């Protein structure tokens, strides 16, 4: 298992990755603004469930298989970008209701959770972290490497739950104020949706140029 010195190096590195806003954080903020704190917190759980998929892949060696195939990693990047862009378009269409029309139905919490899982499973930044960075903290002389990677991955998830949860609570509070001011749909349509589409397109462009 990781010792104190390993954790003292790993935790700051993980924090740098976690606090940098990416697809997962953006999805959490988008869902919190659209549906409030509860949906935001459910999306946090979904995002971190997706992180657990990456942890399992790293521990089982599946990440190394993806790394050995540039085409597979390119496909992961393109799928992740396309999914974000699709969510942005969907968000725009949901928020674009004519004046006087009934409010668009909210996403079920089950769908929010499922979408969040997909967002992070297809997140190339998370995949790259667990593929290239996490193994550097494993020490074969300290025992089974898969168990060490799993333990470090769980530490990462615990930190991310706190960080992403803070985003969800903050954005959920903002959603309440926006709803009272009648600007919630405008923000979803003109801020959140374009950001999701832009991040998706930029992800795909970066993947193609790489």
Question: Describe it for me?
Answer:
By secondary structure, the protein is an all-alpha fold. It has one domain (23-209). The chain is 81% helix and 0% strand. It has nine helices and no strands. It has helices at 4-19, 23-35, 37-60, 62-67, 70-95, 109-121, 124-133, 145-181, 184-209. Helix 1 packs parallel to helix 8, helix 3 (37-60) runs parallel beside helix 6 and helix 5 (70-95) runs antiparallel to helix 9 (184-209). Mean pLDDT is 80; it is low at 98-104.
Shape: globular
State the end-to-end distance: 36 Å
Q: Could you list the spans in which at least 5 consecutive residues all have pLDDT below 50?
A: 98-104
* Cα radius of gyration in angstroms: 18 Å
Question: Please, how many domains?
Answer: 1
Structural class: mainly alpha
What about the largest sheet? none
> Percent range for helical residues?
over 70%
Number of strands: 0
* Proportion of strand residues: under 5%
pLDDT averaged over residues: 80
Describe how the helices and strands are arranged.
Layout: H1 4-19, H2 23-35, H3 37-60, H4 62-67, H5 70-95, H6 109-121, H7 124-133, H8 145-181, H9 184-209
Helix pairs in contact: 1-8, 2-3, 2-6, 2-8, 2-9, 3-6, 3-7, 3-8, 5-9
């Amino acid at each position: 298992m990781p010792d104190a010195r390993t954790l003292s190096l790993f935790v700051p590195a993980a924090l740098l990755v976690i606090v940098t806003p990416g697809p997962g954080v953006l999805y959490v903020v988008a869902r919190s603004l659209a549906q409030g704190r509860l949906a935001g917190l459910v999306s946090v759980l979904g995002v971190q469930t997706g992180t657990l998929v990456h942890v399992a892949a790293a521990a089982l060696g599946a990440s190394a298989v993806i790394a050995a195939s540039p085409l597979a990693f390119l496909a992961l990047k393109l799928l992740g970008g396309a999914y974000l862009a699709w969510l942005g378009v969907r968000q725009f269409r949901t928020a674009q209701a004519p004046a006087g029309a009934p409010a668009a139905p909210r996403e079920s919490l089950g769908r929010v959770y499922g979408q969040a899982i997909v967002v992070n499973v297809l997140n190339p930044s998370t995949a790259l972290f667990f593929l290239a960075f996490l193994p550097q903290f494993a020490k074969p002389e300290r025992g089974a490497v898969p168990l060490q990677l799993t333990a470090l991955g769980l530490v990462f998830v615990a930190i991310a739950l706190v960080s992403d949860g803070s985003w969800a609570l903050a954005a959920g509070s903002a959603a309440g104020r926006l709803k009272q001011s009648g600007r919630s749909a405008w923000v979803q349509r003109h801020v959140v949706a374009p950001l999701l589409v832009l991040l998706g397109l930029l992800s795909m462009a970066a993947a193609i140029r790489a």
